[in-house]
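To whoever is on call:

I kicked off a structure prediction for a single chain this morning and the downstream step that reads the tokens threw a length-mismatch warning. I double-checked the sequence; it's 366 residues and nothing unusual in it as far as I can see. Pasting both halves so you can look.
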Amino acid sequence: MHVLGGDFFNSPVFAAVRPSDRFASVFLLSSCTMMSETALRDLNLLPKSERTNETSSKDILAKPYVEPTNENVGGKQRENTVCLVEPLMNGNEVGHSGTEVVVAEVEYIESDKLNDLEDVDESLKVLLDGLGSKDWVLLCETLNNVRRFSIYHKEALQDILDNVVSLVVKAMKNPRSAVCKTAIMSSADIFKAFGDNIVDSLDPLLVQLLLKSSQDKRFVCEAAEKSLIDLTIWVSPVLLLPKLQPYLKNRNPRIRAKASMCVSRSVPRLGTEGIKDYGIEKLTQIASSQLSDQLPESREAARSLLLELQTTYEKSPVLAPEQDAPSDPHQVYSWEQFCESNLPKLSAQAVLRVTSISREGLVSGL
């Protein structure tokens, strides 16, 4: 009964209660008081996160980097826009009260939809500074201007092309995917605009494209693969193949596979006479070395190349040496004899197995 205190028992309210009901009233009030104290103790034992959700919004910070790629957002696919959300910083701290959020969108514009520059001379003056900027939004805008120059005013870039390529390569290494992808798209437009003139500056570009097509985010990877396809289209295979060959022996199997695919796409552009001039023996040896590679993409590219070489060889076979055909100086080697005379035994067997199976499949499908 002590929980109610002495003041209650001396009060007029308690005196007005009939003696027969006083005990029941005291018991009821005591029970209620004890229940309230128990509930208060239980509430104090609850984890802070379960007591109330009134302050939960204070723990939510604006995401510094949000990048939808090919995902469906709200039922609509956003393939060509990246949204980046960043809180304004004061030194190294983010203001918790009244935090302002800056939202910037970078749109990936296809080459055929890029408009011409409004002021060519002014854009050219600030081009190199913009490519060297640490402001990633400005950098993306300037990379798109590089694309515009390549499409509409390539002659304006001619004198500064080496510097532009160097800064585009630097942008490809940028940790921001938006910058990286825009730089990759810039490289594709540079290939289209300058073709063989880019060969002297190609090595650092090629390294980055092979890397990005092998191990980066999917939408960056796809952009790099597309740029590599443009490279094989717009740069002469005679100049490109020597650049690609070292990467066929790279320690990274994915880089070997991408390089092998580029070789497979580039060789047919040589044509029959070009393949003979480049060296069908050399190309056959290159393709055979990729047949046993780790990744299926590399092996499939090698098979495709070998079929192309077989077709080319059969159009213009190699004459057999005189000692092998003394009675007929015009006798030629068959494809089988050609492979056996230019490849190690096991490699020749592998090449013949691939080309014979593929040729039989083509015949049976007719």
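Update from on-call: the warning came from a stale cache, not from the record. Cleared it. Sanity check on the structure: The chain has a mean pLDDT of 79.
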